[in-house]
Amino acid sequence: MSASAPAATRRYGGSLIQIVALVFGVVFLLVGIAGFIPGLTQNFDTMMFAGHHSEAMLLGVFQVSVLHNAVHLLFGIVGLAVAASAVASRQYLIWGGVIYAVLWIYGLFTAGMADAWNFVPLNTADNWLHLGLTVAMILLGIFVPRGSAVRADPATQ
């Protein structure tokens, strides 16, 4: 960057890919926290640590457990941490998408099953969300450019 670049551009060195990772991190953190708030999570008193017996429903739609919420919190923390690096942000999005693909496939086979394999309570809404996260994270990780998120006005350079 040139010495004449606006102060905001010099002050913020984040790339667009870093902002995308940061946004995913914040959203995952908020979802993880929301899963522990009665009212936002219906049937909160039925929440289990893990397993299909948990009837707690985030926003009345997504089946959650303590383990499920903890995974969201972990994804959020990692998203915030990797946002410091463009390369790490890209890897977070791509590999996070792959992990959600595995979780989506897992949900297709275990949703509604009442056995030990169903240790993360998932319902159809969760499965659709995980598929959407898979596609969004992988595509964003591949196609979002690494360039600066804050562009200097060419007239000031």
3D structure, described in words:
- The protein has 157 residues and is mostly helical.
- The protein has one domain (13-149).
- Helices cover 55% and strands 4% of the residues.
- The chain has helices spanning 7-11, 16-34, 66-82, 86-110, 124-143, and strands at 41-42, 57-58, 62-63.
- It has a three-stranded antiparallel β-sheet.
- Strand 2 (57-58) and strand 3 form a beta hairpin.
- The longest helix has 25 residues, at 86-110.
- The chain starts with 6 loop residues before the first helix and ends in a 14-residue tail after the last helix.
Number of strands: 3
Strand-residue fraction? under 5%
Q: Note the run of SSEs as H and E.
A: HHEEEHHH
Mean pLDDT: 83
Radius of gyration using CA atoms only: 19 Å
Q: Keyphrases for this structure?
A:
157 residues; 5 helices; three-stranded antiparallel beta sheet; mainly alpha
Topology at a glance:
Elements: H1 7-11, H2 16-34, E1 41-42, E2 57-58, E3 62-63, H3 66-82, H4 86-110, H5 124-143
Antiparallel strand pairs: 1-2, 2-3
Helix pairs in contact: 2-3, 2-4, 3-4, 4-5
Outline of this structure?
It is built from 5 helices and 3 strands. It is mainly α and 157 residues long.
